[in-house]
Amino acid sequence: MQVSVLQEHLAKGLDTIARAVANRPSIPILSNVLIATEDGRLKLCATNLELAITARLGAQVDANGETTVPARLLTDLVKSLPSQQIDLRLEGNKLKLHCNGSHWELPTTRASDFPNIPELPERPSAVVPADVLSKLIDQVVFSAAKEDNRPVLMGVLTRFEGPRASMIAADGYRMAMRRAELNAPVNEALTLLIPATSLSEVARIIRSEDGDVHIAVMSGRNQAIFHHKNVDIVSQLIDGKFPEVEQLIPKQAATSTRLDLPDFLAVCKRAEIFARDANGITRFKISTSGEVLVSAQASSGGGGSERLPAEVTGKDIDIAFNVRYLIEVLSVLETKRFVLETNNANAPGVVRPVTEDGEIDPSFVYLVMPMSVR
């Protein structure tokens, strides 16, 4: 194998696949990156067996070949090099790298020992604009469980049907659901339970990108593949039934509170400074006189409160939430205002975005459980 590639292109490709490299693998080769030539381009692959990412780079290929090298060693070396052409040449069990007077050798392991990474079939199941998919992911993925006590809650229930897509994530304390209209109907209906960590990687790679993402399920392998331009992301799917959390959304609200989102978010961030060592407990005293009193106390002492103007309909209520759960949802909404719907201090609250014309956006809903306050 003999290939020439620009340093910035190789560095970007290695960054793209980096999070699929296994940290402490039981199989040593999983800490390596596969380097191969393919159709006149350079292909980089990494996998931890749960997630695999492939990036293809423009390059000058003088001789075909493939090998694997330690991912961290190659990445650190390439990032340290100047923005010049890098020449890679495989000689025996060494990958030789030359760049602007630098000459380095990396140990290799044969490519045949690297796991086989599936590729997108000719006919994908769904084609979704990158901006639509990244927004779907960003607005729900943070609500998935971080611990594996209930593996299904570490996934995001993802549906593609007709011209619509939806995602739901929940961790037992909050739930986020987002729907979106697609430019064209999908080729076949899909219901997938995808690890939140995998979807976070999809969003990271396609965020701010144009074009479409092609999605397919690999039959018989319990895997989904996302293809965007020169990148493939392959994820294992989660077995199990996702709970029917949609039925937890209250049908009515005793109190509806409309607030300025940036101002309320800023107050919540200040409250969290004191609430973070008290399990995030923050009280929200909502008054029909047209204000919300936000207060938090640190377990070690100190605290405070702030008042915010609000449009309140219904009845007064004094309720507490983990303020971090409110900060996370408000940080991903794109509207200037939102509504907080509540019923009583022991019932969940519901957050919905409010559009410029004052209408509630039906495409997103966020449910958060209250906290008890002594």
UniProtKB/TrEMBL annotation:
<keyword id="KW-0963">Cytoplasm</keyword>
<dbReference type="GO" id="GO:0009360">
    <property type="term" value="C:DNA polymerase III complex"/>
</dbReference>
<keyword id="KW-0238">DNA-binding</keyword>
<dbReference type="GO" id="GO:0006271">
    <property type="term" value="P:DNA strand elongation involved in DNA replication"/>
</dbReference>
<feature type="domain" description="DNA polymerase III beta sliding clamp N-terminal">
    <location>
        <begin position="1"/>
        <end position="118"/>
    </location>
</feature>
<keyword id="KW-0808">Transferase</keyword>
<feature type="domain" description="DNA polymerase III beta sliding clamp C-terminal">
    <location>
        <begin position="247"/>
        <end position="371"/>
    </location>
</feature>
<dbReference type="GO" id="GO:0003887">
    <property type="term" value="F:DNA-directed DNA polymerase activity"/>
</dbReference>
<keyword id="KW-0548">Nucleotidyltransferase</keyword>
<dbReference type="Pfam" id="PF02767">
    <property type="entry name" value="DNA_pol3_beta_2"/>
</dbReference>
<comment type="function">
    <text>Confers DNA tethering and processivity to DNA polymerases and other proteins. Acts as a clamp, forming a ring around DNA (a reaction catalyzed by the clamp-loading complex) which diffuses in an ATP-independent manner freely and bidirectionally along dsDNA. Initially characterized for its ability to contact the catalytic subunit of DNA polymerase III (Pol III), a complex, multichain enzyme responsible for most of the replicative synthesis in bacteria; Pol III exhibits 3'-5' exonuclease proofreading activity.</text>
</comment>
<dbReference type="InterPro" id="IPR022635">
    <property type="entry name" value="DNA_polIII_beta_C"/>
</dbReference>
<dbReference type="InterPro" id="IPR001001">
    <property type="entry name" value="DNA_polIII_beta"/>
</dbReference>
<keyword id="KW-0235">DNA replication</keyword>
<dbReference type="GO" id="GO:0003677">
    <property type="term" value="F:DNA binding"/>
</dbReference>
<dbReference type="InterPro" id="IPR022637">
    <property type="entry name" value="DNA_polIII_beta_cen"/>
</dbReference>
<dbReference type="InterPro" id="IPR022634">
    <property type="entry name" value="DNA_polIII_beta_N"/>
</dbReference>
<dbReference type="Pfam" id="PF02768">
    <property type="entry name" value="DNA_pol3_beta_3"/>
</dbReference>
<comment type="similarity">
    <text>Belongs to the beta sliding clamp family.</text>
</comment>
<dbReference type="InterPro" id="IPR046938">
    <property type="entry name" value="DNA_clamp_sf"/>
</dbReference>
<protein>
    <recommendedName>
        <fullName>Beta sliding clamp</fullName>
    </recommendedName>
</protein>
<dbReference type="GO" id="GO:0005737">
    <property type="term" value="C:cytoplasm"/>
</dbReference>
<comment type="subunit">
    <text>Forms a ring-shaped head-to-tail homodimer around DNA.</text>
</comment>
<feature type="domain" description="DNA polymerase III beta sliding clamp central">
    <location>
        <begin position="128"/>
        <end position="244"/>
    </location>
</feature>
<keyword id="KW-0239">DNA-directed DNA polymerase</keyword>
<dbReference type="Pfam" id="PF00712">
    <property type="entry name" value="DNA_pol3_beta"/>
</dbReference>
<dbReference type="GO" id="GO:0008408">
    <property type="term" value="F:3'-5' exonuclease activity"/>
</dbReference>
